[in-house]
UniProtKB/TrEMBL annotation:
InterPro entries: Di-copper_centre_dom_sf, Tyrosinase/Hemocyanin, Tyrosinase_Cu-bd. Keywords: Metal-binding, Oxidoreductase, Signal. This is Tyrosinase copper-binding domain-containing protein. Residues 327-338 form the Tyrosinase copper-binding domain. It comes from Bombardia bombarda. GO terms for molecular function: metal ion binding; oxidoreductase activity.
C-alpha cells in the first residue's frame, strides 16, 4: 500500500518544493571566502537533496533522518575561533585517552587517537579497494567523530577542508598558520626533504614547500608520534627512526613532521573539484579522476585531488599511506573527499547513490597504493561489509553510501 500512497502523494509534495532547506539548516559562512564553483554547485544541489529527502520520508525510508535534525559538517574557516579551539582540544583529549587496540598486536598504540592509526595501517586493503574507498572512509570518519563527541565531549562535528581556500598560501591560512586556533603549523626546514615522488607524472615530484622537519608551532607541536613508519612510506633520507617492529606497529616516539605544501595544494583547487564532479557521469570515471588516473597532461599540478589533499601537509606520519591518520589533518582531507562524493551522488541520486566502481583496482594515484591492486579481489558489494574491529561493530558496505539516513539512520549529516 505504501507504494501507491507515495505515488499519489509525491507529485503534489514535490510540486510544493521551494528552497526551504535554508530554514532547516543553519548556514554560517566566513565572509573572507566568496562561494567557489563547488560551493555554488553544492548550494544549488541542496534543492535536489531536499526533494530526495521528501521522497525518502514519504516512502518511510529516511530512518528518522531529516534535514532539520541532520548534523552539519562545516568548513574549518566557517567555524568560529572558539569552535576551532574546541575541536583542537577534543583531538588533543583523544590523544591522551588510553588505547583500546590490542596491546600485544600494537605495542606502539598509545592512545585512542592511535587506535584509528592502528586500524588504518594494518587494514589498508579493507579501506582502499575500489568498492571500499568512499564508504569505508565515511564510516572511519564517522566513528572518529563519535569518539571526539562521546569520549571528549566535543559538541560540534568533524570539519572539512575546502582546499581552494588555502591552496594559494596554505602556510598563512587558518588551518596551518600555527596559532592556537589552527591545526598546527609547518615543519621546520629540513634540507634533506625533497618532496614526494610521483612516478608516471610530469612533473614527477611534488616538490618540497620548504618544510619537512618537526612542527614547532601550534596545538600539535608537542605531539608524540609513535606508530610507523611502514614500508609504504615514500619518505626517504630523513632522520626518522626505524620502527622496532617490521610492520611499524611498535613504539617509535618522535615528533610530528610536516611540509605545508603549496605545490600539492594547487592540485586540489575548486576548478579541478568542479571538473571532477561535473565531467564524470559514472563512478569509475569519478574514482579515477579523483585519484589522478590517468595522469593529467599539461598541468603543473597533475596529482589528482586525493593525492594533492594528502600532501598539503604530509611528511611523517602523514605521507605514509598506511599511517596517514596519524596527522589529525587526515580527517579534514577525507571529510573533503566525502563531501565531493556526496555532491557528485546528489547530481542524480536515483542512479548515483548506490553506484559502486565495477573494476578491481588500487590507488594508482599514491605511492605505495599500487601494491594494493592485487591485495583484495572486489567482493560483491551487496554482501560486503565494513568492519573496523576495535573501533566499531561491522556495518554493511551499502549502508555507508547514504549520509542522510544510512546505517539505520546513524549517518545523518550534511556538508555546508
Ligand atoms: C544558496 O541557495 C539558496 C536557496 O536555494 C539561495 O537563496 C541563496 O541565495 C544561495 N546562496 C548563494 C550564496 O548563492
Ligand atoms: C565529559 O563530560 C563528562 C560529564 O560532564 C565528564 O564526566 C567527563 O570527565 C568529560 N570527559 C572529558 C574527557 O573531559
Ligand atoms: C589565528 O588565525 C586566524 C586565521 O587567520 C585568525 O582569525 C585569528 O585571529 C588568529 N588568532 C590569533 C590568536 O592570532
Ligand atoms: Cu585511507
Amino acid at each position: 500500500m505504501r507504494t501507491s500512497w507515495s505515488a499519489l502523494l509525491l507529485p503534489s509534495v514535490l510540486a510544493g518544493v521551494r528552497a526551504d532547506w535554508t530554514s532547516q539548516i543553519k548556514v554560517v559562512r566566513n565572509g573572507l571566502f566568496p562561494l567557489d564553483l563547488v560551493d555554488q554547485l553544492e548550494n544549488t544541489t541542496m534543492s535536489s537533496v531536499e526533494a530526495y529527502m521528501i521522497k525518502k520520508a514519504a516512502a518511510g525510508k529516511n530512518n528518522g533522518c531529516t534535514l532539520e535534525n541532520a548534523a552539519v559538517r562545516r568548513e574549518w574557516s566557517d567555524l568560529s575561533i572558539a569552535q576551532r579551539e574546541e575541536y583542537v582540544a577534543a583531538v588533543t583529549c583523544l590523544m591522551k585517552l588510553p588505547a583500546q587496540a590490542p596491546k600485544d598486536r600494537f605495542p606502539g598504540a598509545n592512545s585512542r587517537f592511535d587506535d584509528f592509526v592502528a586500524y588504518h595501517m594494518t587494514h589498508a586493503a579493507e579501506l582502499h579497494d575500489t568498492i571500499h574507498l568512499f564508504p569505508a572512509h565515511k564510516q572511519f570518519l564517522y566513528v572518529y567523530e563519535q569518539a571526539l563527541r562521546n569520549e571528549c565531549n566535543y559538541t560540534g562535528y568533524q570539519p572539512y577542508m575546502n582546499y581552494d581556500r588555502y591552496s594559494q598560501d596554505p602556510i598563512h591560512s587558518a588551518m596551518f598558520n600555527g596559532n592556537s586556533s589552527s591545526m598546527g603549523g609547518n615543519g621546520a626546514p629540513d634540507p634533506a626533504y625533497k618532496g614526494i615522488p610521483q612516478s608516471g607524472r610530469t612533473p614527477n615530484i611534488i616538490k618540497t614547500g620548504g618544510g619537512g622537519g618537526c612542527v614547532t608551532e601550534g596545538p600539535f607541536k608537542d605531539m608524540v608520534v609513535s606508530l610507523g613508519p611502514t614500508s609504504m612510506s615514500p619518505i626517504r633520507g630523513l632522520a626518522i627512526p626505524k620502527n622496532p617492529k617490521a610492520d611499524g606497529t611498535g613504539p617509535n616516539p618522535r615528533c610530528l613532521r610536516r611540509d605545508i605544501n603549496r605545490n600539492a595544494a594547487m592540485g586540489a583547487t575548486a576548478d579541478r573539484a568542479y571538473h571532477l564532479i561535473t565531467n564524470n557521469k559514472d563512478i569509475n570515471g569519478f574514482y579515477n579522476e579523483l585519484l589522478g588516473n590517468p595522469a593529467p597532461k599539461n598541468d603543473p599540478y597533475p596529482w589528482g585531488i586525493h593525492t594533492a589533499g594528502h600532501y598539503i601537509h604530509a611528511v611523517d606520519p602523514g605521507a605514509d599511506p598506511a599511517t596517514s591518520p596519524g596527522d589529525p589533518v587526515f580527517y579534514f582531507h577525507h571529510g573533503a573527499l566525502d563531501r565531493l562524493w556526496w555532491i557528485w551522488q546528489m547530481q542524480d541520486p536515483e542512479n548515483r547513490l548506490n553506484a559502486v566502481p565495477d573494476f578491481s583496482g588500487g590507488m594508482p594515484g599514491m605511492p605505495g597504493h599500487g601494491g594494493m591492486r592485487k591485495m583484495r579481489r572486489a567482493e560483491d558489494p551487496k554482501t560486503a561489509d565494513i568492519d573496523l574491529l576495535w573501533l566499531a561493530p561491522p556495518i554493511k558496505l551499502m549502508e555507508a553510501h547514504d549520509q542522510l539516513g544510512g546505517n539505520k539512520g546513524a549517518f545523518c549529516y550534511v556538508y555546508v
